[in-house]
Design brief:
By secondary structure, the chain is an alpha+beta fold. The protein contains five helices and eight strands, in the order E-H-H-H-E-E-E-H-E-H-E-E-E. It has a single domain, classed as Gcn5-related N-acetyltransferase (GNAT) (Aminopeptidase). The chain is 27% helix and 28% strand. The mean pLDDT is 90. The longest helix is centred in the first third of the chain and has 15 residues.
Length: 179
């Protein structure tokens, strides 16, 4: 199957455009699942961890001069957080045999949903994690992301959890998949 997009590793000079895609995605796609208060609070736990770009494990899909979507994987222990997150990072490297690679910071521009962008980026991440020796991947899903992840074979690892931000509960679901 061919894709009408160009997929590549993100570069540091993409950060500003990536943040714009993330903001559009959070504002428009999360609002279908969360209250306005939860969407606002989710911005404090979601977003891009620029360490992924520096590690060379963050991908994007381009359509013309636009970023259609983005997402990455990590060999580090951090499950989810962005540069602006109120949650601390865990920078230690996960053991490929006993630990799991992490799928991180998946976002699709609302103008490009339902066109296979997220599925392809997840496949790129899984291929890279497998090549690095990982046997398992896990992620922390937002309500908007759960259908995509289930479609890609991810299953809940734990019961629904909540990030508590400024008195607001943001629902999150930890999911995993064997490679």
């Amino acid at each position: 199957m061919t894709h009408p997009f160009i997929y590549r590793a993100a570069r540091l000079d993409d950060l500003e455009a990536l943040h714009r895609v993330m903001e559009r995605s959070i504002a428009r796609l999360q609002s279908q699942f969360l209250t306005p208060e939860q969407v606002a609070a989710s911005r404090k736990v979601m977003g891009l961890d620029s360490q992924l770009v520096r590690d060379g494990t963050y991908f994007l899909a381009e359509s013309g001069d636009r970023i259609a979507g983005c997402g990455g994987w990590s060999f580090r222990e951090t499950l989810y957080v962005g540069d602006e997150s109120v949650i601390a990072r865990e920078p230690a490297v996960a053991n490929p045999v006993s630990g799991a690679a992490k799928i991180r910071a998946m976002y699709t521009d609302p103008d490009f949903t339902r066109r296979g962008v997220g599925v392809r980026i997840i496949a790129l991440c899984e291929e890279a994690a497998r090549a690095a020796g990982y046997r398992r991947v896990e992620l922390m899903a937002t309500a908007a992301g759960v259908p995509l992840y289930e479609n890609c074979g991810y299953r809940p690892k734990e019961r629904l959890q909540f990030a508590h931000v400024d008195g607001v509960e943001v629902p999150l679901l930890r999911m995993e998949k064997a490679l």
